[in-house]
Amino acid sequence: MELGKILIISGIILLGLGLALVFAGKIPFIGRLPGDILIQKNNFSFYFPLTTSIVVSIILSIIFWLWSRR
To answer: Which of 2, 18, 46, 64 is 20 to 30 A away from residue 39, measured at CA?
Structure first.
């Protein structure tokens, strides 16, 4: 029974990640928030989504906190 629960949860997580990848380009502000670091030089490009990572972390923390209160 435990293996079944793990497979179901893994499937839900993979579904969520897949949907996030499909719709990430359609959300206009994700990846372009103030505080995201973008350095472009001649043959070099570096991108670090600092603010986006913080916002996603806060949202996930709130979701997991609400879920654990059940």
So the answer is: 18
Pairing of strands 37-40, 45-48: antiparallel
pLDDT exceeds cutoff 90 at 9: no
- State the average pLDDT over residues 39-68: 89
DSSP bridge partners of 37: 48
Whether 56 and 23 share a structural domain: no
One domain for residues 24 and 40: no
Percent of the chain with pLDDT over 90: 16
Domain count, the chain: 2
Torsion sign over Cα 34, 40, 45, 46? negative
Identity of the amino acid at 7: L
Distance CA 41, CA 49 (A): 18
- Statement to judge: residues 41 and 67 lie in one domain: yes
